[in-house]
Amino acid sequence: MKELDQEKTIHLLNTIMEFELAGVVRYTHYSLMVTGPNRIPIVEFFKAQANESLLHAQQVGEILTGLEGHPSLRIAPMEETYKHTVRDILEESLNHERKALELYKSLLETVSDASIYLEEFARTMIGQEELHNIEIKKMLRDFSGNAA
């Protein structure tokens, strides 16, 4: 096995943690902005996403401190589009989930053949993010008959 690039891994984990914390804010905001007859299940979906983002941030933070890193107090930048139709919110969510998937794939590339634990963690997170992408794409299918 190769040696773990601790500095690069810590930097990437901090980036992921900031992104996951931004997800908490993003999904909480979305849950507050949903209106319409299907509001309740969609609000519950976004609340669950916010809770999961917080859990992911906490898991990443635990790994960070285990590697003697210092977890960031920042969150990733977020833009407010002021578009709050369910379709707009779901499309923004899909973009967010795609970025999360990219970050976890970068983590996997960084830790591959250097840490079995971190490889398995990255693979697990990639699987979860892929599932989120699939779920949101399925939710978007009901809008105008177009798949995202």
Q: What does this protein look like?
A:
With 148 residues, the chain is an all-alpha fold. It is built from four helices and no strands. The longest helix is centred in the N-terminal third of the chain and has 28 residues, at 6-33. The chain starts with 5 loop residues before the first helix and ends in an 8-residue tail after the last helix.
Quick summary of this structure?
The chain is mainly alpha-helical.
Number of strands: 0
Please work out how many helical segments DSSP would assign. 4
Helix-strand string: HHHH
Largest sheet: none
Task: Please identify the structural class as seen in this structure.
Answer: mainly alpha
End-to-end gap: 40 Å
> What share of residues are in beta strands?
under 5%
Mean pLDDT: 95
Large-scale geometry: elongated
User: Percent of residues in helical segments?
Assistant: over 70%
Question: Could you outline the blueprint of secondary structure elements for this entry?
Answer:
Elements: H1 6-33, H2 39-66, H3 86-111, H4 116-140
Helix pairs in contact: 1-2, 1-3, 3-4
Could you list some keywords that capture this structure?
mainly alpha; about 150 residues; 4 helices
